[in-house]
Design a protein that fits this description.
449 residues; three-stranded antiparallel β-sheet
Length: 449
């Protein structure tokens, strides 16, 4: 019976790091629109900055990020010049009274940057934006890139959170995804960043990879737990070779089926909660004192393109090739091609090539989907308070959906729409029922569990 249930509700669905999701962005949103939106930010509003470094010195076959391999450093130097020019353009459009409360360096591999260039990037940012004294600085780290000098540079820029990709410590799995990284390397990163005062460590672990079993995933989880990270992200591998052609290097016959993926997820989640980690949303676990756990407990957790976050900034400003920004008016995405991105940025143009402007209905559906993804519930009173009478048609949809549920996934009463514990692993599927664009266009999605 469980297998049939998983098969019924665990099929492809968006990850909902935005609504509408990125496949529905369009070219009608360009640099001119973005410039207007940036000018409308007002003094006192807060900013979260995202910097994308789209290179790695090896290409992991499982990766779904916008990145490419290079063994030369010159492309990164050239890219940093374009980044500086994009910063100059953006900062000239934003009111100087706006404050930066968070910075995230992602990729690709930001830790490919040489120490002097890491410091130079920090100088670029702080000369153009006003940072709060307690701004969170998070960096995605590849243990294979790191040196003592790089650790020192990261400490010098004020890194407060280190995010380390683990994926799996099993050698057979690592070879199958072209990601060889020992437990000892990973342990060294944790020790080095903590020795330099980093107060939060996150580890990413994947299930659903080739050759994984629930036993092998559990072994990796227990090794990760020995490092005592503050957060653990437990992601299901998204096999999307039609989007990421390098994933064609993965032997599909070695991938676990949907039922096994579900079992791997449950086994790992059980081990994590037994170790004292608080489950957060669909794929995060944190120690009770971690800021994400605190935000989740208070109802203040949000969801954006980095996933679950305690970041409550008014605008997310993405910089770099393919990066996505989120402003009160909607979303923007930069040119993915690094060459074309650099050309536009060096000309002083905003390299935005697509995006989406939100209407009132989009905002209502986005809020409901975010609440479901974060809290597994939403109250009609909250939606009415935020959106008034314009929300009634969508709330009627919610009541109808609850009435049609015959699988015990939804509870509804007293104006509260809740996903049951049985339904929580399939929240992406429930959320898709509120998605006015789902099933339109040609977008394809990864499995919901």
């Amino acid at each position: 019976m469980q297998k049939e249930f998983v098969q019924k509700h665990g099929g492809p669905a968006p990850r909902y790091t935005s609504y509408p999701t990125a496949p529905h962005f369009h070219s009608g949103i360009d640099g001119d629109v973005y410039a207007r939106w940036l000018r409308q930010l007002t003094p006192g509003q807060t900013l979260s900055l995202y910097i994308h470094i789209p290179w790695c010195d090896r290409l992991c076959w499982f990766c779904g990020c916008n990145t490419k391999q290079t063994l030369k450093y010159e492309p990164l130097k050239t890219y940093l010049t374009a980044l500086e020019n994009e910063m100059e353009t953006i900062s000239g459009l934003i009111d100087p009274g706006c404050r930066v409360t968070a910075l995230h360096l992602g990729g690709g591999s930001p830790t490919m940057l040489r120490p002097d260039d890491m410091l130079a990037l920090n100088t670029m940012l702080r000369s153009r934006f006003i940072f709060d004294a307690d701004a969170e600085i998070s960096v995605e780290m590849d243990p294979n890139d790191l040196t003592v000098e790089k650790y020192d540079a990261l400490a010098a820029i004020g890194m407060t959170r280190a995010s380390i990709g683990v994926q799996d410590f099993n050698e057979e799995v690592q070879k199958a995804i072209n990601r060889e990284q020992t437990f000892e390397q990973t342990r060294d990163v944790v020790e080095q960043v903590r020795a330099r005062g980093v107060r939060s460590v996150n580890c990413d672990v994947l299930y659903g990879l080739p050759h994984q079993t629930r036993q092998s995933v559990d072994r990796t989880i227990r090794q990760v737990l020995s490092l005592e990270p503050d957060r653990i992200a437990l992601f299901g591998y998204a096999h999307v070779p039609w989007m990421k052609t390098h994933q064609k290097m993965i032997d599909e016959t070695a991938l676990p089926d949907l039922t096994e993926r579900f079992a791997q997820m449950n086994r790992a989640a059980s081990t994590l909660t037994s170790a004292g980690y608080t489950p957060i949303g669909i794929d995060h676990f944190a120690l009770p004192g971690d800021s994400l756990a605190v935000a989740a407990a208070s109802g203040a957790m949000r969801r954006n393109f980095q996933g679950y976050t305690s970041d409550t900034a008014d605008a997310l400003i993405g910089m770099g090739a393919s990066s996505i920004g989120q402003l009160p008016q909607g979303y923007v995405q930069n040119q993915p091609s690094t060459g074309e991105y650099q050309r536009k940025a060096n000309l002083g143009e905003l390299p935005v090539v697509r995006g989406f402007e939100l209407c009132t209905e989009d905002r209502i559906r986005a809020r409901i989907i975010e609440l479901l993804m974060c809290d597994f519930a939403f109250s009609f009173a909250t939606i009415r308070h935020e959106f008034g009478g314009e929300s009634e048609n969508i709330l009627d949809e919610a009541e109808y959906l609850a009435g049609c549920d015959t699988d015990g996934m939804i509870e509804f009463g007293g104006g509260l729409f809740q996903i049951t514990p049985k339904g929580r692993p399939f929240v992406r599927s429930v959320a898709s029922a509120f998605d006015g664009y789902f099933g339109t266009g040609t977008a394809r999605h990864s499995l919901a569990v």
